[in-house]
Amino acid sequence: MRKITHTNNEVEQFFHHYMKKDDRKILFIGTVGFNDAGNYFATALSSCKHISYKFFIEQRASIPPPIVAAGSRNRTFLATALEANDLEFAEISIVADDEATVAGRNAVRASALWLNGGYTDIVVDATSMSRGVCFPIIKQVLQFARDNGVEPHILVAERGLSGIEIQSMSGDVACYMHGFQETMETDLLSEALVLWIPQLAENADTSLRRIFSALKPSPAEICPVLPFPSSSPRRADELLVKFRGDLVGWDVNLLDMIYAHESDPLDVCATISRLHKSRDSIFKAATNIPATTVLSPNGWRVGSIGMLLASLEFNLPIMYTENIGYTVKSGSFPALNTDVPPCRWHIWL
User: Fold this and answer.
1) Residues 110-147: pLDDT tens digits?
2) pTM of model > 0.85
3) Is the peptide bond before 229 cis (omega within 30 degrees of 0)?
4) Burial zone of 201 (CB within 10 Å; 0-12 exposed, 13-18 middle, 19+ buried)
5) Which of 99, 95, 86 is nearest to 49 (CA)?
6) Per-residue model confidence as pLDDT tens digits over 249-287
7) Ordered domains of the chain (ranges, CATH)
8) Hey, CA dihedral for 223, 345, 8, 41, is it positive or negative?
9) Nearest CA to 288 among 152, 153, 174, 188?
């Protein structure tokens, strides 16, 4: 899968020389979240001559008032900043009343109404999207773009929320992401040799334990992903200490750890691609037992996008647990920040 990428200042240059041409007709799909970094790309493209904005508002049962207020503030900001453009907000449920994960299904059902003829480019802004919404939407957009001669783009930005500590709450059930089950849990792979690649993150221990228990067949090999280089030089070491009990229980060889750049999605994508291709060729040549690679994105968003790119290229299954809510552990939201996020990526598929 060919990719053209731009990072940081290159992104705005690409917007100027390509996106803002008079002959481009753009569909922008994003999410209104509590982090104001999710407002940046939409406003940066607001001067495009032909652009339609569609924003998801993810509905969860357990959202504390400060997060609700921050989301409402960002929605008001976007509605004001983009008032001259075609603009729509769509609420989607992330978890059903019976606690089933329905994020991906509801998202692709809603976006199917937006994917129609006439657009030259479709942009998915992953900055504020949960993975259960973002990954199925990008896969849907990529297929639509290929079938209709449209150019698909992914945007992602990251900026920390200083002054407040938020923790997500994962659901009790691990499942394959909508559109990313592939042939798992079928007779074709009932005896497969599974390589599991989980992304280690500070609040992901409970989620990853549930995923490990749910994987059938159980992983024959595990290669966890750690963020290095990182803005915090000791982050990878601290995660190793945090997960030391799990790594021992999972029988992980420390030589099998994957170190991927915290702010470069292509780094983790390239590493997963090399592992999967080499492993696939070896097992095909040496045995009749099938082999597959299962990904579990958690933690830092840019690295998750890298895992998505690898999944799209090799049709790799993704197992995860959905966020059912958030808790505010301490602090309060800072004032609305309209500065340019320090980490920005554009990926043209």
Assistant:
1) 999 999 878 999 999 999 999 999 999 999 999 999 99
2) yes
3) yes
4) buried
5) 86
6) 999 998 999 999 989 999 999 999 999 998 888 877 777
7) 4-163+342-348 (3.40.50.11700), 172-321 (3.40.50)
8) negative
9) 188
